[in-house]
Design a protein that fits this description.
The structure is a single chain. The protein has 279 residues and is α/β, with parallel strands linked by helices. It has three domains: 3-116, CBS-domain, CATH 3.10.580.10; 127-180 and 220-278, CBS-domain (Roll); 183-214, no CATH class. Helix content is 30%, strand content 29%. It has twelve helices and 13 strands. It has a three-stranded mixed β-sheet with strand order 1-2-3. Strands 6-7-8 form a three-stranded mixed β-sheet. A hairpin with a 5-residue loop joins strand 4 (94-98) and strand 5 (104-109). The two termini are 16 Å apart. This is CBS domain protein. Residues 7-65, 67-123, 131-189, 227-279 form the CBS domain. InterPro entries: CBS_dom, CBS_dom_sf, Diverse_CBS-Domain.
Length: 279
């Protein structure tokens, strides 16, 4: 299958120059986690900006500085298996599609590959061959700011919620955290006293340094107030192609994996399943 058969053609993009507020407004309006960046009023691709870029750089306002410019791109006539390998090798989930002139003509994601290509492959490989087993979990009554730090330490886009019996009861994604947060400015004061040693008549002078810094501020809600409570799961022996079909039907990019006794043993993401295309 060629990329042009699987990619999204109606691409929502943002242009430079521009600022953080412009990106956030567009992401929320269009329900997008990533936006290609084009130059001015043209279709010339110059970067890519994600929600993660906004989260990890709360002090920065300009799109040109926030965006990634070291891009992995694809051509409409590339084979989807080649794009899957590019995603795996570069640890990315989304690849802009450009024509011979470098103009943006589409975008293809790991979810596109799973829902359009993998479901037709009828792979017999079980999910356990592709899932990750080191997964961030948190208590369902954990404050959002603590749960966010847990997710961030793992470098993933989601955290799973467990109840008092250690049973899976919810899942929070990066999108959930964004919706329950805002960028605020905090000002701190740092002072130091300087005097002349040994001179009893000298006046001490105090210098004050004010530091203003932006940071991510979460609401006072708990994990149980925000996350998805009806969590869809697959078991470790579910076929990769069947898991792909479930992802497409439910329009989700990741599914927790349970063992024979219903215990949580891992997480499988669209970016993991595309390895079945390459294999």
């Amino acid at each position: 299958m060629l990329v042009k058969r699987a990619m999204s053609k109606n691409v929502v993009s943002v242009s430079v120059p521009g600022n953080r507020e412009k990106v956030l407004d567009l992401m929320r309006k269009e329900d997008k986690a990533v936006l290609p960046v084009v130059k001015g009023d043209t279709k010339q691709l110059v970067g890519l900006i994600t929600r993660s870029d906004l989260i990890v750089n709360p002090d920065e306002e300009q799109i040109a500085i926030l965006m990634s410019t070291d891009l992995v791109t694809a051509s409409p006539d590339d084979d989807v298996k080649d794009v899957a390998k590019k995603m795996i090798d570069n640890n990315v989930r989304r690849v802009p599609v450009v024509d011979d002139n470098g103009d943006l003509v589409g975008i293809i994601t790991s979810f596109d590959l799973v829902s359009n290509a993998l479901i037709k492959l009828e792979s017999d490989d079980p999910v356990e061959n592709f899932m990750i087993t080191t997964v961030p979990t948190t208590w369902y009554k954990t404050p959002l700011n603590v749960a966010f730090e847990t997710m961030k330490q793992f470098g993933l886009k989601s955290v799973l919620a467990l109840n008092d019996s250690a049973k899976l009861v919810g899942i929070l994604t990066e999108t959930d955290f964004i919706e329950e947060s805002e960028i605020i400015s905090e000002r701190s004061e740092h002072s130091s006293t300087v005097g002349t040693e040994g001179d009893k008549w000298s006046w001490d002078s105090t210098s004050v340094l004010y530091i203003e810094k932006n940071c991510l501020k979460f609401t006072d809600k708990l994990v149980e107030d925000v996350g998805t409570h009806k969590v869809e799961v697959v078991n470790s022996k579910t076929k990769a192609s069947d898991c792909a079909k479930k992802m497409k039907t439910l329009n989700i990019e990741q599914i927790p994996v349970i063992g024979v006794e219903g215990e949580l043993i891992g997480l499988v993401r669209a970016s993991d399943l595309i390895k079945a295309l390459v294999d």
